[in-house]
Amino acid sequence: MNLFKLISEIEQIDPEANERYSFYSRRNLIKYGTNLAAAAIPTLMATTFNQAFAQTTTAPSQAAIDVANFALTLEYLEDEFYKNGLAASGLIPTTDRTVISQISKHETAHVNLLKTALGAGAVAKPTFKFPTGTFTTYTTFLATARAFEDTGVQAYKGQAGTLINDKDILQIALQIHSVEARHASEIRRMQGLKGWVSDTSQTSFTQAGINLKTLTGKSDDAIREAFDEPLTKDAVLAIVKPFLA
């Protein structure tokens, strides 16, 4: 590790950092050698990191809070859905129960993380309703799970731009998004489907100004499978609304 380069980078964030480790000037580090560095520098650097980088932390914007609460509402829905499925006698086959149970644990963890991040600003859990038959046949249960997981993946993607200046919330969203994508693929496997999506409602084939048809020369379905599309908040709410009591 290049300690002096690291110190220089910290000084750019916290100009007063130099005063806190002035004793450990480059000359003194060379003079006293590795024993001093090994004994004292870890504590000094930890303190400096905490003080320097704490200055870069800012409260999330209202837009970021709204997005996080939007995500929390979706996670509440998925969390309750899987818990109800696991509680339904004879619904989930023994061969799939371990996987569904693990997905359920993930959703609970997502809820807890978002609630902790939002603190007092977290929305309360809504009352949900599920159509008759949702927890009666496994086929219907899996179809509903696929709809929730696919929607969740596209919902997180659709809000990424809003979080571009709120890195803490963005990191949480990305951590959850990648796991939701794995859930979606696993549910599709259970249904005997491909792990990726061909969304026939997708009519735009331009990404970042690039014409994907010209670039790839592939069919519309192949392009849809290769490039997952985001969903707007309004589109997601339209999908979720029937489940809100």
Automatic annotation (TrEMBL):
Domain of life: Bacteria
InterPro entries: Ferritin-like_SF (IPR009078)
Pfam families: Ferritin_2 (PF13668)
Protein name: Ferritin-like domain-containing protein
